[in-house]
Write a structure and sequence with these properties.
52% helix; mainly alpha; two-stranded antiparallel ribbon
């Protein structure tokens, strides 16, 4: 796919050992989301100061670096943006429907990048849940 619109997961971890990461449907949907974001920000009315939008888009979509093995990686800023309360600064969009769409989709994709809880954290959760005595079985 086009680097700028690839799912962040594919840019952050381009290989798994010696094998490339295989894109899945969620990656395809996330890629489509980035196309929507880019078009919405570039082609609709907004309150960005001249140059600020270009700088933000470059940081979010064009950022890349070489890892110690020489592989091109990126996507870190995309992860930060989908986890942000104002992803890609969409509050600057004048079109409220587009703003809500992007915020909702960003929340959906943010879940993909949450850290998996450690075993000790799961144990703490279960302990607190059981202490609560809600009568509901612990997961």
């Amino acid at each position: 796919g086009t680097w700028q619109f690839m799912a962040a997961r594919l840019l952050v971890i381009p290989t798994h050992g010696e094998l490339p990461v295989i894109p899945d449907r969620a990656d395809d949907l996330e890629s489509f989301f980035y196309v929507i974001v880019w078009i919405a920000l570039r082609c609709t009315d907004n309150s960005f100061v001249q140059g600020a939008l270009t700088k933000m888009l470059h940081a979010a979509f064009d950022d890349d670096y070489l890892d110690p093995q020489g592989a091109a990686k990126g996507g870190d800023r995309k992860i930060v943006e989908v986890q942000a309360s104002n992803p890609f600064q969409v509050s600057r969009l004048f079109n409220v429907s587009l703003r809500v769409l992007i915020e909702t989709l960003a929340t959906t994709f943010a879940v993909r990048y949450e850290k998996t809880p450690k075993a000790t954290e799961i144990a703490q959760y279960k302990e607190l849940f059981e202490k609560q005595g809600s009568g509901v079985k612990s997961p």
